[in-house]
Amino acid sequence: MQTPSHFHTILFLGMLLLFAPTWLWLGEAWLSNPYYSHGPLVVIVALYFAWVQAKTLGDVARAPNPLGWGILVAALAFHLWATFWRAYYLSALMIPLALLGLLLTLFGWRAARHYAFPLAFLVLMVPLPIAERIGPLLEQWTTTSAVALTQIVGIRAHNVGAQVFLPNATFTIGIPCGGLRSAIAIITLTTLFAYILHGPFWARLALFLAAV
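Below the sequence we write its predicted structure tokens.
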């Protein structure tokens, strides 16, 4: 199979332009959401690995798969639905799926497998609405853990919700103290690290799970 031509490049760029409102939302979210300020770096890394894989496709037989049309149409339809309801994070999740559908349509499964990591890695660029849901849980876990450790060393402490009471002080543990921001960044970095490492799949998977 020949290296993707300029025509194919234009097709992929055109596909990305269909998600223009979503890209605008992503840009604003990356600037305003401290949990996902690393989003642009995810895109750059994914583009780099896609470029590296594009240079190795010369030995892969081209076998267009009609299943790609189904994936492509489904991804675009869901994108339109999500955009209509302003659920842009769902629309953003359709970007790698739409690109996968286009790859299958043009080149087939074997070629699409070469781009599996860059496409999957793009999912980590999407600001998911998890801070409001998981943040309070992590906040509560941090509070109870800190109080328990404080009691172990002999300091009288107790908590009511996120508020901690010490003999001579009272303070509140906030959501940022739950570690969610660090967890998202560490998972993103470890995913990349596990991919570029040489070793058995189970070991790299164990590394990723350790980060989680």
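The longest strand covers residues 163-166.
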